[in-house]
Each structure stands twice: as C-alpha cells, then as structure tokens.
Amino acid sequence: MQLPRERGPISGHVIRTLTSPDGSRRNPAPAPEPTRSGILEDDDAQLALWLLYEPHYRGLDGVAADVEWDAGLVALRRSLEQRFERELREAVEPALRGCAADDDRVDVGAQIFALVEADDGPSLATFLQREASLEQVLDLLREKSLQQLKESDPQAFVLPRLQGRAKVALAELLYDEYGAGRPTHLHQALYADALTAAGLDPTYGAYVDDVSALTLANANVASLFALNRRLLGASMGHFATFEATSSVPSRKIAAGIERLGLPAAVAAYFHEHVEADAVHEQIAVGDICGTLVSEQPSLRSDVLFGAASCLHLEGASGRELLHRWTARMDAAS
After folding, report:
1. pLDDT over 70, % of the chain
2. Helices 134-148 and 213-227 sit at what angle, rounded to 10 degrees?
3. Residue 275: predicted pLDDT
4. Is 246:277 a contact under the CB 8 Å cutoff?
C-alpha cells in the first residue's frame, strides 16, 4: 500500500526512515517526542505507530522488507507502545475496579460480560439503524476499513503462543473468519465487497489519510496486544470483547444500510456477523479466555485489561463519530 501523508514530526520521521537507504537507517536522526501529553488521541503518534506495525503485515510501497526489524524503528515502536499501554491502563482502571478484576473466585467470562453490561458507550449502531444519512454510513465504512480489511490478522500472530484447548478454539474461530475454506467468504473480502458496492475504494489502507486518531488507535491496539507475547492475555480479552459486542450492532447497522437502499452486498458483511459473532462470542470468551485463565491464573488481569481497552476505545471512537455527525447536522440546519 502507498505511504500516507505525515501528520506531524513523529510520523514524518518514521516515513523518512522507512524510505531511506540502508546506510541512512543505521544512523537515523533521533525520533522526536510526542508534542501532546497523551497519545491516545494524538494523530501524529497514532499514525507513526500504525506505520511501524504495517511492515509486520503487508508492507508499504517503496519500503524494503528488512525494515520490519530495523533496530531504530523497533526502539521507537516500543517507546510509543509503552506510552500507549500506560495511558490505556490508566483509562480503564475505574472499569476494572467495577468488575472485581482482582477477584479470582469469579469466572473470567462473567467478568467480561459484566464489563460489557456496565459499559456506557454511545449506541452508534442504533443511530445508524434509525437516523444516519447515506454520507454518515459511508463515513463509517471508510473509518472501519482500516481494521476490517485486515480482520483477524493481528490475532493470527497469537496462535503459536497458545496450546491445548485455547489454541484449538482460536484456530476454529480464525478458520471461520478466514472464510472456512472459501476465499470469497473471507471476512476481509466481504468487507472489500461492501466498500465496492457502496462506491468506495476497497484497496487496503486507501483511507488511512482520512481516518481519525481514535480509529488508528482502535487498529493499533490489536497489534500492540498481539505482537507482544507478554500481552497474550490482553490480546485474547480484547478479541473476545470485540466478538461479544458485534452481533447486535451488526444487525442494526445492516438494517440502517437497507433503510437507505444501498446494494445488498453492503449489508451482507454485517449480516454475516450477526450469526457468526454470536457463536464466536462463546468460543472467544469461554473456550479461549476461560481456558487461559483456568490454566494460567496470572493472565486474568491482562485478559480483563484487554476487554476493558476494547470497550474504552470503541466507545471513544463512537462518541467522536456521533459528535462529528451531529455537529454537521446542526450546522446544516
């Protein structure tokens, strides 16, 4: 995919380093520090982190394959990850207190569902079902493309780190996500089909210049957890919560798409997730997270940290979108 435009000194530094000759990469200029006190909603820092993750996936046009393990870029990635993780832990600490995250007598699946039940994030799906305009639905499709065009790819990095029942359960779930042997049913392909049917660009990364810092953060957190083996529990907690909060919203979004008369292929992606994620929820919460915590009790806190992080970032992103849309509606009225 093509390199996006820089959004500040850090992402600019990353782009210049990614595209520099080997000799220049060995002695790069020092990376600048984030200019904001926090990086969760920092466009520059989140784009830089996204760029630092992409060499582990499909790569970037004009960037050498060996840059994936460039020592300077890995060091910068770790520095940004440490701040990202620290801010996330601070942000979700109240939610974790509310679900008795430190009580090892409670079933971890029950704790995940308690977090979901207590979450007060906005009902973005209900708005899309009942009120959203065509442009707002297209806006959502563009924002979601950053994650959905590589759906389940981060979690595939986790598979070799599991064993026994949890490994089998994740493999079963990923097999379904990757089309159950049918390339046309690959969930990433279904999302690309939805973009095409809606008149949007289905190319991987096509809208990275357009999406918000929070959308980048939602994509980055999955890579943060999956690419760091010490965060195995957080990766699976995040994944389980994403699956557990997908089925009902997918049904509502599909209804909104059909209300607006968009082609059937646009809603088809969401219809697929109504049934699939209702099943995936049970596998991810019980067979993966439940097994992990049963076999390694020390992973409980990270499983719940991942779950709470999913809800926090999805909620923040939903509030941002609704604010953007209602502000435009108010301005137009």
Report:
1. 93
2. 20
3. 77
4. yes
Report the alpha-carbon distance of residue 80 to residue 43 in Å, rounded: 13
Asked if residue 15 and residue 119 are part of one domain, the reply reads: no
The 3-class SS string of 240-302 reads HHHHHCCHHHHHHHHHHHHHCCCCHHHHHHHHHHHHHHHHHHHHHHHHHHHHHHHHCHHHHHH
Instruction: Report whether 207 contacts 145 (CB < 8 A).
Output: yes
Q: What is the DSSP string of 15-54?
A: HHHHTS-HHHHHSPPPPPPPSSS--TT-HHHHHHHHHHHG
237: which 2 tokens? 């907690």
pTM: 0.93
- Domain span at residue 178? 102-332
pLDDT at 303: 97
How many domains is the chain partitioned into structurally?
Answer: 2
- 310, 312, 315, 321: CA torsion to nearest 10: -100
Pick the closest to residue 154 from 310, 301, 316 (CA basis): 310
Identify the residue whose tokens are 């220049």: 24
**Is residue 62 located within the same domain as residue 149?**
no
* Cβ atoms of 39 and 50 closer than 8 Å: no
From residue 29, alpha-carbon distances to 8, 26, 292, 321 in Å are 15, 10, 42, 37
Residue 94 included in any domain: no
Boundary of a domain, candidates 29, 58, 87: 87
Which amino acid is present at 214?
A: L
In angstroms, the CA 233 to CA 111 distance is 14
The CA distance from 177 to 273, in Å, is 10
Please choose, from the candidates 131, 259, 265, the residue with its C-alpha nearest in 3D space to the C-alpha of residue 198.
265
Residues 79-133: pLDDT tens digits?
Answer: 999 999 999 999 999 999 877 767 778 899 999 999 999 988 778 999 999 999 9
Query: Which segments within 46-174 are labelled E, that is strand?
Result: none
Residues 150 and 250 reside in one and the same domain: yes
Q: What share of the chain is helix, strand, coil (3-state, %, to 5)?
A: 75, 0, 25
Give the C-alpha separation, 166 to 23, whole Å: 44
